[in-house]
Amino acid sequence: RPAEQGDLPVSEALGMASHESQSLLWERMVGQSLPFWKWATPIVHKYFPHTKACTPEDFYRAVNHVRPSLIRVDADEVTYPLHVILRFELEKGVLDGEVSVDELPALWDQRMKDYLGVVPPSAKEGVLQDVHWPSGAIGYFPSYTLGAMMANQIYEAAKDNIEGLEDKISKGQFTELKDWLNKNVHSQGSLHQSADDLLLAATGKRLDPKLFSDYLKGKYCEIYGLTL
C-alpha cells in the first residue's frame, strides 16, 4: 500500500484469517515443501554435520510427519484443523448457552478422544493449553484453518503466475514470490470488502475448500504411499 496511506483505515489488514494466510504460506507452502528442502539441505549439512546422511526427501518427510498430538501448536497440517474444529464447537456451544464452563474439561477430553484418539492427562494439556479464551479472543481459532486454506489457494495462484516458481524455490530464489504477494495481497490492505473478495482478485475465485482438501490428499498420499 502507498506509504502516505499508512494511517488510514484502508491500510489495515483485511482480517486475521488473511494475516494467518501469509505466515502459513511461507511456513507450509514454502518451508515444508520439497523444493525448499532441496535448497536448505546443504545449509543444514554445513551447520549440523551429523545430518549429512539425510537427503532432501528425508527432511521433507520429517517436517511433514503426521501424528495425533495433544497440543494444537505442535500439530501437523493434517490434524491441525481437528484441533480448531473442537475449539470452535465448544466455544460456540458456550455462546449458544448449550454448554456450561464447568462442562468444558470433560467435553474437551471426550472430543480429543473422538477426533484424534488421544486423551489429555490433565487440563494443562487439555482445555487450559491456549491463551485465547482467558485473554478474551473468543472465536479466533477458525482464523488458523481459514488462513491455511487461503494460503494454499494464494500459493497455487502464485505458481500459475510465476514461471518455474518451485524450481526457483529449490535454488533459494524467493524474491519473485515475495514481490507477487506484495502486489496482489499485501498492498491491497482493506481495499476489498472481505477475504473472499481479496481471493477473487488475487486468485480468480472465492475461498474454495476443495482446493485445500485436494492439496492435503495429494501431498500426503504421495508421502505415505496411500491411495484414496
From TrEMBL:
InterPro entries: Peptidase_M32_Taq (IPR001333). Pfam families: Peptidase_M32 (PF02074). One of its GO terms (biological process) is proteolysis. GO terms for molecular function: metallocarboxypeptidase activity. PROSITE patterns: PEPTIDASE_M32. It comes from the Eukaryota. PANTHER family: CARBOXYPEPTIDASE 1, METAL-DEPENDENT CARBOXYPEPTIDASE. This is Carboxypeptidase. The lineage of its organism: Eukaryota, Cryptophyceae, Cryptomonadales, Hemiselmidaceae, Hemiselmis.
